[in-house]
Specification:
With 140 residues, the chain is mainly alpha-helical. It has eight helices and no strands. It folds into two domains: 54 residues, Homeodomain-like (Arc Repressor Mutant, subunit A), CATH 1.10.10.60; 83 residues, Orthogonal Bundle (Tetracycline Repressor, domain 2), CATH 1.10.357.10. Helix 5 packs antiparallel against helix 7. It starts with a helix and ends with a helix. The model has no long low-confidence stretch (mean pLDDT 89).
Length: 140
C-alpha cells in the first residue's frame, strides 16, 4: 500500500495523493485503507518509510569525509527520485525511525572523527540542510 501511495505521490504530486486515489489504484474500497491507516497523515508516514526503504544502503566505508559524502549523495538521490518528499517534509515533521537512523549515522560518523556531540549535530544539520535544499531546489 505504501509503495503504491509513493508511486502516486511521484506521478500525481502531493495534492493528487488521497485515500480514495490509493484505494482506486489498489482496486479496493476506500474504507479498506482505514483498517491500515487512521487517516492521510498515517498514510504519509508510510510513504516516507517506503521512500527511505527504497534508498540505497549506507556502506560506512572510507574516511569520515567519504562517509559523509556518501550519506549526502544518498539523501540527494532519494529526494531527486521522489521530489514530492521535499514538499511533504515541509508539511509535517519527519520523525520516522528510518529517517532518524539516517541522522544518527551522520552524527556517528562525525563523532568517530573526533567532533563533540554538539559540533557533530550542528555540522550534520548544516550538511543535510544544504543537501536537502540543493535537491529540492534543483531543476527536475
Amino acid at each position: 500500500m505504501a509503495k503504491t501511495a509513493l508511486a502516486i505521490l511521484d506521478t500525481e504530486g502531493l495534492d493528487g495523493l488521497s485515500m480514495r486515489r490509493v484505494a482506486e489504484a489498489l482496486d479496493v474500497g476506500t474504507m479498506t485503507l482505514y483498517s491500515y491507516f487512521r487517516g492521510k497523515d498515517e498514510l504519509l508516514d508510510a510513504v516516507i518509510d517506503a521512500a527511505v526503504d527504497d534508498a540505497e544502503s549506507f556502506s560506512a566505508n572510507g574516511s569520515w569525509r567519504d562517509q559523509l559524502r556518501e550519506l549526502m549523495q544518498i539523501s540527494r538521490r532519494t529526494l531527486t527520485q521522489h521530489p514530492e518528499l521535499f514538499q511533504l517534509c515541509f508539511r509535517q515533521p519527519v520523525l520516522r525511525p528510518e529517517a532518524l537512523r539516517f541522522g544518527e549515522a551522520g552524527v556517528g560518523v562525525l563523532r568517530r572523527a573526533g567532533f563533540s556531540n554538539a559540533d557533530a549535530a550542528q555540522a550534520f544539520r548544516l550538511l543535510f540542510a544544504y543537501s536537502f535544499g540543493f535537491a529540492g531546489l534543483s531543476a527536475k
